[in-house]
Amino acid sequence: MNVIEVISAICGAGGILGVVSYFLFFKETKRIKKSEAKKGELDNWERQIERYEKRLQERDIKVDTLYTELRKEQEKNLSLLEQINNKELENKLLIIQKCEVRGCTSRKPPSDNY
Fold first, then answer.
1. Predicted confidence (pLDDT) per residue in 62-80, tens digit
2. Which residues of 22-54 are buried (b: 16+ CB within 10 A; e: fewer)?
3. How far apart are the C-alpha atoms of 15 and 4, rounded to whole Å?
4. 1-30 pLDDT, tens per residue?
5. Which end of the chain is more exposed for a tag (fewer CB within 10 A), N or C?
């Protein structure tokens, strides 16, 4: 036998063995490939879930910040409203206590302060 015949016999046997092994282990390799594809898909979903959770946390922080600012503005507005109401009350009281006749004891309306 020459070298070419030996090489072709080995390749032929290897080719036949390759085909036989392919059919023998077809289900196993198919299952392995399927599981690898499923794992890649799950990894992709996990990355997307992590990204969405991060975005959700960022939005929660933003909403909390906005609510804090809103509460501060509401407190400020309530304080201003209270001041306005107090000033209006003082103004009404001064209008009621306004003396129409000045410098006399017969003040209209009467008052304890002379």
1. 999 999 999 999 999 999 9
2. eeeeeeeeeeeeeeeeeeeeeeeeeeeeeeeee
3. 16
4. 555 554 555 555 555 555 555 556 666 777
5. N
